[in-house]
Each structure stands twice: as C-alpha cells, then as structure tokens.
Amino acid sequence: MKPTTKVQIEVDRLSKKLPDLNRTQIDWAKENILGFFYYATKKECTCLECNHKWNPNNPWSNKDWKEKVVNGKNIECPNCNRKIEQLPGRIRTNKYQDYFLQFTTIKNFQVIRIFYIQKYIKVGELPDTWMQEVVQHWIRDDGKLTIRSIRYNAMGWGDHKWGGGEMSIKKAKGYHYRDGKIIKGRKILPIIRRNGYKGKTYDLWPSYLFSTILSSAKAETLLKADQIELLSVFDSREEMIEKYWKSIKICIRNNYKPSDAKIWFDQLSLLEEFGKDILSTKYICPEDLIKEHNKLIEKKRKIQQKKELEELKGKIDKYNIYYKKNFNKYFSLKFSNDVLDIIVLDDVKEFYLEGNMLRHCVFQNKYFEREDSLILSARIGQERIETIEVNLKDLSIAQAHGIGHTTTKYRKQILSLIKSNIKEIKQVRDKKKESKRKLKIAS
After folding, report:
1. CA–CA–CA angle 55, 58, 59 (5° rounding)
2. 234 lies in the same domain as 337
3. Which residues contact 117 (CB under 8 A, 6 or more apart)?
4. CB within 8 A of 294, min separation 6: which ones?
5. Is there a contact between 33 and 181 (Cβ–Cβ < 8 Å)?
6. Is residue 67 part of a domain?
7. Of 6, 37, 151, 205, which is the most exposed, with the fewest CB atoms less than 10 Å away?
8. Alpha-carbon gap, residue 135 to 115, rounded angstroms
9. Quick check: helix, strand or coil at residue 127?
10. What span, in angstroms and rounded, lies between the C-alpha atoms of 56 and 123?
11. Which CATH number fits the domain that encloses residue 423?
12. Distance (Å, whole) CA 30 – CA 24
C-alpha cells in the first residue's frame, strides 16, 4: 500500500535508516531461538549442529564426555557442548521455524521489528538456517500504530507463508502480530518507560501493550498497578473499564487482582442488577470470583425462571425478531470432528436452555443482543458441553465455558475445531457486511 498520510510517509522514510542485523545479533538468533537436535540409533549419535558422531555405549572413546540426560531424551554434545534434543521418531530431516523481535527507536517512534527464522536439519549435513525481517510495528508517542510488512501468502507454501518482496505500509491483520524472544540491547522510548513498562510484556503483544499505555491514561494506571488481567482485555472491554473505573480503583487500593477480567465485569453487572454496592470491597473483591459469580447466576436464574416459564414464548418471539435478523446468516454453520459438534445457537430459546443446562449467564446477560458476539454450542450428541463466544470484530475466541464456568476436558478440542474453521465465520461475516453496505448505498 502506498503511504498517503504524513505519518505513513514519515515511517516509510525512516524505515530506510534502520540497520540490518549485525553478525552478533544473527549469531544470537541462531543460538537462542530454535533448539538443537541429534539423531540417534542403537550404535551411534549424530549432533545435527556440528555433525559430530559418537558411540554413547562406548565410554572409552569419549573419556571426557559425561552424558547429561533429561527425561531420557535431551543430552549434551561432547564436541560443541550444546544441549541437544533427539529428533522425534525415526525421521532424518526436519524443519523448524519461529519468530524473534527487536525493540528499537527512531525519532518519536517505538519500532518493533519482527524476524522470521527457519532452520532445516538433515543427518550428515550442517544445518541450513535462514532468517528475514517480515513485519515492523511503528508506534508513535501518542500510541498510534503504523505497520509495514512484506507480502503474506494466505495460501502459504510449506510452513512458510511470508511471500517476500519489499516492505510496504499494510492494514493490520492477525498475522502481523507475532511474539517471540527479544534481542538483547532493546531500546525503549522514555515515555513508554515513564508509562509503566519495566521490561515485561506479560504475554501480551508488545505493540498492543505499548500502544495501549501510550494512548490511555487508564491503561497506564493498570500497568503501573500490576492489573495485567484487566489490561489484557482493555481493547475489547474499554467501555466496561470506563463504566466501572471507580470500582477498579478500589481494587487497586486493596491490591485485589481479578482472576478473570471478563467474568469480573459480568459480576459487576449482576451486582448492579441486584442493587448491591459496587464500591464495596465485600462484593467487588471476592476471594473466589468464580464461586461468587455462580451464586449470583443461580440467584438470578431462580428469580427469572418463575417469570420466564410463564412468559418464555412471548419473550423469545420478541427477542428472536432482533436475533434472527442479525444472525440468521450464521445458522447453517456447523463444525464437527469424531467426538464433537459445534453449532451456532439459532434461536433465543436455545440461549435459555443453554444457560440453564450449563448454569452460566449466556441468556440472563442477553448475549443474543450483542451484535459483535457469535454464540456457539459444543455438544456430544444432545449433551451440551461448552458455550463459546466468538468476537466478530477480530474473530477471536472471547470466552468458552462449561457447566458453571468450568473448563471441560474437551476444551482443547473445542478451541482447535473453532480455530480451524474460523475462516468460514469470517466469510459469512464479510458477506453480511457487504450486503449491508450495498443496502445502504441503494437506500
């Protein structure tokens, strides 16, 4: 994309001044990003880094070498002294890839440079390591983010989907955000350190962390108060943070850190509904958040059931007008494997049944009225296992809960099945947006 704004033009100009990785940095990446491996037979071990061979069963041929075994697989090469891991199975070749980051600054920009590294190993040959800079995040001191990237092949080739070419300005996509080890000697804008950064990213995307604490005083406060769980949902729950900021400040003063930010915000909504004081530590700082949340859900369910069982049909008909109008395009989606079926809840009655069977707030908190939330149900036959919320803005899995907000043994399967089919949700979402756009133009 050709730079058009003043910031994009400035980023494009300054990017040409960024130096290539030097030999020390390249060597560091080779030694620290990807692991080291060896190939073993009954009679011989071969280090795939230095190509040294030895007989582990003949100590006389390796007097000075002491085998260091970790879980029976990881040892130390007697020649190069690297800790090496055995290749899985009987394969003789393999390819590994990962990312590493460099933090640097130029003028009033914090620059996060993301490098892709790939290593091809084969028994009898020295490893072939290749690396390339693929993405740059340029963060201005006001938190605004500009992204430069090389071309990305959506179809991919092999395990490597970066298509090469020159870097250019890009609209941010999911694949532009990568995490990894950070090269030593990081340079950080003074304002980022002033706003609370002390060297840790807390498993957050660095660009998300820096942009957020630069653009919001509340995010800065959360970082300085070590409220990382609340900070991690700042982008998706900014309205909630604004609404309940007084309660958050009370948590900060009492050093209370919610174990789950999304559930904690739901808890505050329920407390308000029951007329409880959301500025009281008694209610907003529970020792067991999940337990207290479940109590309120159960209390709300009992109160509502008496009315809902009588008025259910009328309510559902009313709610369904809005829900089916906005979500009917998704109703045909179904994802399955050998164990599970995952379907979109296609009727508000299903929200009611789902919430009652799994004892959570999907119906009580009216998730069917949230236009950016797609609610799915994971099932085995007719048994409801977990309810999943997909954020239609960024196609992330916002939350997934089994009975009483627990994690079931099927969680990994459920998340994997949804992620592998997320493109189908995206296609429906994009078609829906396009239809709305055409309808708007026509009107």
Report:
1. 115
2. no
3. 29, 30, 33, 34, 97, 98, 99, 100, 129, 130, 131
4. 359, 404, 405
5. yes
6. yes
7. 6
8. 7
9. coil
10. 17
11. 3.40.630
12. 10
Determine contact, residues 164/150, Cβ cutoff 8 Å: yes
Distance, in Å, from the CA atom of 180 to the CA atom of 98, rounded to the nearest integer, reads 8
Structural domain for 26, as ranges: 6-182
Query: Helix H segments across 328-421?
Result: 348-358, 411-420
What are the residues facing 152 on neighbouring strands?
A: 162
| Secondary structure of residue 176 in the 3-state scheme | helix
Reported as a pLDDT band with limits 50, 70 and 90, residue 303 is confident
Task: State the sign of the Cα–Cα–Cα–Cα dihedral 73, 115, 392, 269.
Answer: positive
C-alpha 335/C-alpha 377 separation (Å) is: 10
| Pairwise CA distance, residues 169 & 216, whole Å | 25
- Separation of first and last alpha carbons in the chain: 31
196: alpha, beta or left? (left if phi > 0; alpha if psi -120 to 50): left
Taking the C-alpha atoms of residue 240 and residue 269, their distance in angstroms, rounded to an integer, is 10
Chain mean position to CA 227: 18
- pTM equals 0.66
**Domain presence at residue 373:** yes
104-122 confidence digits (pLDDT tens)? 999 999 999 999 999 999 9
Query: Are 95 and 140 within one domain?
Result: yes
- Cα within 13 Å of Cα(420), Cβ side: 11
Q: How many domains does the chain have?
A: 3
pLDDT digits (tens, 9 = 90+) for 159-212: 457 777 788 998 888 888 888 999 988 999 999 999 999 999 998 999 999 999
Same domain, residue pair 277 and 405: no
The type of residue at 253 is R
Please say whether the beta carbons of 233 and 212 come within 8 A. no
* Residue among 410, 420, 415 at smallest CA distance from 339: 410
